Amino acid sequence: MAKQKLQEIxxxxxxxxxxxxxxxxxxxxxxxxxxxxxxxxxxPITHADLAEExxxxxxxxxxxxxxxxxxxxxxxxxxxxLGDHVWRFEIRDPDDPHQGKHPHFVCVDCGKVTCFxxxxxxxxxxxxxxxxxxVTEILLKGHCHECKAG
Length: 150
Hints:
By secondary structure, the chain is an alpha+beta fold. The protein is built from 6 helices and 6 strands; from the N terminus they run ααβααββββαβα. Strands 1-3-2 form a 3-stranded antiparallel sheet.
């Protein structure tokens, strides 16, 4: 069982190394760690959230930030600002026809962010958004189940 898990980790690292090289980036331990962590989370996270996880592993905050910027520039990561002037980052799915653009829901009470990555926009929606310009973000705000119940 441990051997299988080790092989899965090796395979993931090899896949990420290839992904980085194809994007024109050097494959460094910091970039791999950032991508691995972004793959594990289900919603966009801040630099501070990522640093909280990776600094104890020996990566400094500046290196993490520079790598987030490089990965965003290479279109491997999407950067989102959800109305609170804080950038959040999430990994992009290379098979996603919407190029990682999807609505986000933010709880106005606790700040929890939820991705609606399964919502797609058809031709009618695209036509409507083209009338107003280029839509770059769709943000929904409200009260999550936990806060509404509490």
